[in-house]
Specification:
2 domains; globular
Length: 173
């Protein structure tokens, strides 16, 4: 095996990580934007204005980075070697919980940035945002199922095979 294939250069790793970040961000943006549009339509029926397009793009980028950090921390890898459905569900749960933890940390950072005491941030999180946080983690859990399904199928097929399958012309029967 050539040394270059075993140890990709810094530039090759940066290009690959950027490609992963963009792919994950686009998927999450489309999923979260669909949920946001649906939420906006429901709230509009009650006369409540709700538009967060820019926020959704930033949230998708942050969540994509959390997923990449989870990959670096080997989150969900204990499930490798089991049935693929178990691996997919295990990773889905693990990453949904990881995102939930990061959402709580984000809430603390924003609260501290705005001068709130940690106890006040915790009280606010427990009272006002707990149900929304749980709902968002549940939505992400559901959104992560097809995401991790495709990632695991791609991993099982080998590098580039899923991409070739998806983006090559379909042969005639």
């Amino acid at each position: 095996m050539p040394a270059e294939a075993a140890h990709p250069s810094l530039k090759q790793r940066a290009v690959e990580e950027t490609r992963k970040l963009i792919t994950i961000t686009v998927y999450l943006f489309l999923f979260l934007e669909a949920v946001t549009i649906y939420r906006s339509l429901i709230l509009t029926e009650y006369g409540i204005d709700y538009a967060r397009v820019g926020y959704v793009a930033i949230e998708a980028l942050v969540l994509a980075k959390v997923i990449l950090l989870g990959d670096l921390m080997h989150v969900g890898e204990r499930s490798h070697g089991r049935k693929m459905v178990i691996t997919i569900l295990y990773k889905t749960v693990a990453f949904a919980l990881l995102v939930g933890v990061f959402k709580v940390l984000e809430h603390f950072v924003v609260g501290l940035f705005h001068g709130q005491a940690p106890t006040a941030v915790w009280a606010e999180l427990k009272q006002q945002n707990r149900d929304e946080l749980l709902a968002r983690v549940l939505l992400l859990f559901v959104g992560f199922i097809p995401f991790f399904m495709l990632r695991e199928i791609s991993r099982a097929l080998g590098p580039g095979r899923l991409h070739a399958l998806m983006f090559s012309p379909t042969p005639k029967a």
